[in-house]
């Protein structure tokens, strides 16, 4: 029963990400919207959860542990940064069905992050993360930082920084670097918290046992 439930849930998560991306970007350019960590992380969720759904249905070929865990962390970062830093009304389900952009906004910033976390807690195998994963997972956020800053340096337009906490024009390099240190430390702590929770949860499959050697009679 657990496998069909996990398969259906992962399909739903992937679809939520796809629909959210579409509704959030349909009035503009999808490729232009890829400058935002929100859209990138939802694309990753759509791909990884579709992969996980197929693998769960087939019983083999699952995404690597580090990738599934990293995907969960990145979409959690999207939800937390938006709702705690950027949104005027955090964690508010305000989307009306007639307002497609706002519905998409809620899907990519609230529904998909929560659903991904629920999937990790309920359906993933546990006790597979390592403490070093929390540091390794930071490679993508710092890669995104490099991308955003290089892109901004190459453009000559007022809105070239995707997020206000990266805006060198307003903050200066010192202020931006301080924000990077604060956010980077918070993301690392969030990764450590994920590892701690994962190691505390029960493993879903039995530990492999080493057969006891049989004594051969002379």
Summed up:
With 218 residues, the chain is mostly helical. The chain has helices at 2-25, 30-33, 37-58, 65-86, 100-123, 133-136, 139-154, 168-200.
List keywords for this structure.
68% helix, 218 residues, 8 helices, mainly alpha, 0% strand
Order of helices and strands: HHHHHHHH
Beta content: under 5%
Query: Which stretches of 5+ consecutive residues score pLDDT under 50?
Result: 206-212
**Main beta-sheet strand count, sense and barrel state:** none
Question: Which structural class matches the secondary elements?
Answer: mainly alpha
How many alpha or pi helices? 8
Percent of residues in helices: 55-70%
What does this structure look like?
It is globular, with a radius of gyration of 20 Å. The chain has helices at 2-25, 30-33, 37-58, 65-86, 100-123, 133-136, 139-154, 168-200. It has 218 residues and is mainly alpha-helical. It starts with a helix and ends in an 18-residue tail after the last helix. It is built from 8 helices and no strands.
């Amino acid at each position: 029963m657990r496998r069909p439930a996990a398969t259906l849930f992962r399909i739903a998560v992937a679809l939520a990400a796809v629909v959210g991306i579409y509704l959030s970007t349909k009035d503009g350019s999808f490729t232009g919207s890829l400058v935002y960590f929100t859209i990138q992380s939802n694309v990753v969720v759509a791909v990884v959860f579709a992969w996980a759904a197929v693998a769960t249905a087939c019983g083999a070929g699952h995404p690597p542990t580090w990738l599934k865990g990293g995907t969960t962390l990145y979409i959690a970062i999207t939800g937390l940064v938006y709702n705690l830093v950027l949104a005027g009304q955090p964690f508010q389900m305000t989307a009306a069905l007639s307002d497609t952009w706002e519905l998409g906004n809620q899907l990519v910033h609230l529904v998909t992050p929560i659903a991904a976390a629920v999937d990790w807690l309920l359906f993933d195998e546990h006790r597979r993360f390592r403490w070093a994963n929390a540091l390794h997972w930071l490679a993508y956020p710092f890669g995104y930082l490099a991308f955003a800053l290089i892109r901004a340096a190459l453009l000559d337009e007022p809105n070239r920084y995707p997020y206000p906490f990266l805006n060198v024009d307003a903050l200066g390099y010192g202020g931006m670097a301080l924000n990077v240190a604060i956010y980077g430390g918070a993301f690392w702590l969030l990764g450590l918290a994920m590892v701690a929770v994962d190691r505390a949860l029960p493993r879903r499959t039995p530990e492999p046992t080493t057969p006891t050697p049989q004594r051969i009679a002379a």
